């Protein structure tokens, strides 16, 4: 029986995918759920598993082809069918499988229990078993890769105890247990790619955990492979590797790029590029010797140790002018691009698509106000020493701005809102979940501080420092990359005076904070006398969605922020 491999739905609003690489070739044997092909969308790069065991008889969509959701990618046929085509000189054995064709369909479903004897235990547990699902790990993230199980089948777990490590293109994190009990079965093995909402494992009560040992008699299906030996005429060598489970996964590296590069997931390949690691020199420790994220990180650490082992003289000179040395190195690294035409990286392609979609889906415009930050500058100078000693973090200007934004959002709820085009409804949020744009080695991330409105100025300073550090180190929690209701981007960190931020839908607005610079300004004293003075000023551009925010609304919101900052009444927050 032939099975059609189709392009699955890879996320909301995703209508098509592009074939980036075939991991199997026509004529190759594949197992159920074995990675078959890599596809790429505007949201995610992922692998499509085989829906059935058999032989890849035909590749319909070639590499770089774009296929609609539901479109056919390939055809999987039975091994017996493939064998008949390959060996026409053996009609007699063909007749025997034909006679055995009726037991064979029964034998085909039976290998499936082999693949999940543990889940049999969870079924024995009945309704007591609670599934552990892949959570949403950020906006536009549709899947995650299991990197390491922290618990084994049969282990007891507590509520919120770390259960498994997963990785996405944005974050590495631990998934906690949703309930207390016993880990009955592991559905997704290490290196498996699981869609958001897909099952990772099952947890049941202690009494239910006794079920798996009783279900162990289910190894009876292991006899099924021996009944499979009926079509032995074609697969005489296969029964030998079959007892050893390792040779079959070892076939996974076979679908290499054809240049000797072992197969790796897009995440691992990206990590290797960032650390300048040659994958040919890395020994994989995953299933079938697959190279995992941990292998690349270990290789990067060894490389770092080798560099640190250089003569002390080289070490001493390096810190003397790291930035000066880095500039020519960076320039040299990009010099080869002059006069060339390069294909955009996948990340750049996705960025191009998402920013354009944001502009097309919303009615964006930007309004800018100038803010006199002189009092905040003086206040920070007075408090930063004692603040750092007391709170353990540096006092930057961002917590002051964040506090002013929160106060303004409480007064202007139409800015802390979102518009649903389909239902024609506006949602006004009752809490301030602030996103902060953070520049990382992996690209721009916007982690979210939930319920930021409940934090003091010191609490905001600690939370901003913490979430920015974890964004750069890749240690964000799953819910910290989604759920924002308003975002602040510090465009002044690189000296920019103002910019026009692009919204993060469905948020209604985003505020940019320009560089604080000294400028001559007209100063009016309490009696109305005017004079020219040197003031510390910055620009605050607000990009907003005109579908639910009017220009006057944006102006009132910015004016509230401006007055709060120019008043500079934060002494009580700083203990002054």
TrEMBL record:
The keyword Acyltransferase applies. PROSITE patterns: BIOTINYL_LIPOYL, LIPOYL, PSBD. It catalyses: N(6)-[(R)-dihydrolipoyl]-L-lysyl-[protein] + acetyl-CoA = N(6)-[(R)-S(8)-acetyldihydrolipoyl]-L-lysyl-[protein] + CoA. Its cofactor is (R)-lipoate. The keyword Cell inner membrane does not apply. Transmembrane segments: none annotated. Residues 2-77, 129-204 form the Lipoyl-binding domain. CDD domains: lipoyl_domain (cd06849). Residues 115-129, 310-322 have a biased composition (Low complexity). SUPFAM superfamilies: CoA-dependent acyltransferases (SSF52777), Peripheral subunit-binding domain of 2-oxo acid dehydrogenase complex (SSF47005), Single hybrid motif (SSF51230). Keywords: Acyltransferase, Lipoyl, Pyruvate, Repeat, Transferase. One of its GO terms (cellular component) is cytoplasm. InterPro entries: 2-oxoA_DH_lipoyl-BS, 2-oxoacid_DH_actylTfrase, 2-oxoacid_DH_E2_comp, 2-oxoglutarate_DH_E2, Biotin_lipoyl, CAT-like_dom_sf, E3-bd_dom_sf, PSBD. Gene3D superfamilies: 2.40.50.100, Chloramphenicol acetyltransferase-like domain, E3-binding domain. Residues 78-132, 205-263, 302-322 are annotated as: Disordered. NCBIfam families: SucB_Actino. This is Dihydrolipoamide acetyltransferase component of pyruvate dehydrogenase complex. It comes from Mycobacterium pseudoshottsii.
């Amino acid at each position: 029986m032939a099975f059609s491999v189709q392009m699955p739905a890879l996320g909301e609003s995703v209508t098509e995918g592009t074939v980036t690489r075939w991991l199997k070739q026509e004529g190759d044997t594949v197992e159920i759920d074995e990675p078959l092909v890599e596809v790429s969308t505007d949201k995610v790069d992922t692998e499509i598993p085989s829906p059935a065991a058999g032989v890849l008889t035909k590749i319909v969509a070639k590499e770089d082809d774009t296929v609609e959701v539901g479109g056919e990618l390939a055809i999987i046929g039975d091994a017996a069918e493939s064998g008949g085509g390959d060996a026409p000189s053996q009609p007699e054995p063909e007749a025997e499988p034909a006679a055995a064709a009726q037991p064979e369909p029964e034998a085909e479903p039976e290998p499936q229990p082999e693949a999940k004897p543990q889940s049999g235990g969870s079924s024995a547990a009945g309704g007591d078993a609670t599934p552990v699902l892949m959570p949403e790990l950020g906006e536009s993230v549709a899947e995650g890769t299991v990197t390491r199980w922290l618990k084994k089948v049969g282990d007891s777990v507590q509520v919120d105890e770390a259960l498994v490590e997963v990785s996405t293109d944005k974050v590495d994190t631990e998934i906690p247990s949703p309930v207390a009990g016993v880990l009955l079965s592991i559905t997704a093995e290490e290196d498996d790619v699981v869609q958001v909402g897909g099952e990772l494992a099952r947890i049941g009560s202690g009494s239910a955990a006794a079920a798996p040992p009783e279900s162990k008699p289910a190894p009876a299906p292991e006899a099924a492979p021996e009944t499979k030996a009926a079509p032995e005429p074609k697969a005489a060598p296969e029964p030998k590797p079959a007892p050893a489970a390792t040779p079959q996964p070892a076939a996974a590296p076979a679908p290499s790029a054809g240049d000797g590069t072992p197969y790796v997931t897009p995440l691992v390949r990206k990590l290797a590029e960032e650390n300048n690691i040659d994958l040919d020199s890395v020994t994989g420790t995953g299933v079938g010797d697959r190279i995992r994220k941990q292998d690349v990180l270990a290789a990067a650490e060894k490389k770092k140790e080798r560099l640190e082992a250089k003569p002390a003289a080289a070490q001493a000179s390096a810190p003397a002018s790291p930035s000066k040395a880095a500039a020519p190195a960076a320039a040299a690294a990009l010099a080869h691009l002059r006069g060339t035409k390069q294909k955009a990286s996948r990340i750049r392609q996705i960025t191009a698509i998402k920013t354009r979609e944001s502009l097309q889906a919303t009615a964006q415009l930007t309004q800018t106000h100038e803010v006199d930050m002189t009092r905040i500058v003086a206040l920070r100078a007075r408090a930063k020493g004692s603040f750092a000693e007391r709170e353990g973090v540096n006092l930057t200007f961002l917590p002051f701005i964040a506090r002013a934004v929160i106060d303004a959002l409480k007064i202007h709820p139409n800015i802390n809102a979102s518009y649903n085009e389909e239902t024609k409804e506006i949602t006004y949020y009752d809490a301030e979940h602030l996103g902060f744009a953070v520049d990382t080695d992996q690209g721009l991330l916007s982690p979210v501080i939930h319920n930021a409105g409940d934090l003091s100025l010191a609490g905001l300073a600690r939370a901003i420092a913490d979430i920015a550090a974890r964004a750069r180190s890749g240690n964000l929690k799953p819910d910290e990359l989604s759920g924002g209701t308003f975002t602040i981007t510090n465009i002044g960190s690189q000296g920019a005076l103002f910019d026009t931020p692009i919204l993060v839908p469905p948020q209604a607005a985003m505020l940019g904070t320009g560089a604080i610079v000294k400028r001559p300004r007209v100063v009016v004293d309490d009696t109305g006398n005017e004079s020219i003075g040197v003031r510390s000023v910055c620009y605050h551009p607000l990009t907003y969605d005109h579908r639910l925010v009017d220009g006057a609304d944006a102006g009132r919101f910015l004016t509230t922020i401006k007055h709060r900052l120019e008043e500079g009444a934060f002494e009580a927050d700083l203990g002054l």
